[in-house]
Amino acid sequence: MKVALACDGHQVAPHFGRCEGYExxxxxxxxxxERENVPNPGHEPGALPKMLNEMGVECIVAGxxxxxxxxxxxxxxxxxxxxxxxxxNEVIEALAWGRLTTDGSNPCHHTEES
Length: 114
Description:
- The chain has one domain (2-96): Dinitrogenase iron-molybdenum cofactor biosynthesis domain (Nucleotidyltransferase, domain 5, 2-Layer Sandwich), CATH 3.30.420.
- The protein starts with a strand and ends in an 18-residue tail after the last helix.
- It contains three helices and six strands, in the order E-E-E-E-H-E-H-E-H.
- Strand 5, helix 2 (67-75) and strand 6 (79-81) form a beta-alpha-beta unit.
- Strands 1, 2, 3, 4, 5 and 6 form a six-stranded mixed beta sheet that branches.
- By secondary structure, the chain is an alpha/beta fold.
């Protein structure tokens, strides 16, 4: 499975579209196979789901994401996991072991202008 984690530094970012970049991790049979950092291409509606789809990403992880963005990711068959925080290393390890937990929230509350 190829996963994109919205990141600010070495932490999962609170908002998928306004983060510094994306840590792309490929996990196979519980092992991290490959990992790379991709800069954020900008907060243009629809651009990120398309880019990640072209990279073969199957899932995106972030602290928060609005319902419209989740719908666009769904159109590209990319699963969204929100309510995640912590270090990238810890979250990737939890994903690999099938033990990722979320806080159950989706704390992304902004307008189109913010």
